[in-house]
Description:
alpha/beta, 3 helices, Rossmann fold
Amino acid sequence: MSYALRGRKVLVTGGARGIGAEIVRKFAAEGCDIALNYLSSEDRANELAGQMREQYSVRTAVIQGDMAKVSDCTELVSLPADVC
């Protein structure tokens, strides 16, 4: 039995560049909607989110936050499920 990811919602912290961006690409390719968190690479995050919407027809949300701050982490995981 395989596990289907299509239609799932995924939060990727540090998703604007590097390994995080590759994780975003892989989940989007599987049909997951993506909440993409970034610290300071807003342009890269928005560009990647747009590419994923265009290429894979998934929903994306781009959310700024510093994962070294408890308040930002709490806010990020408290977002409504329909964010993306």
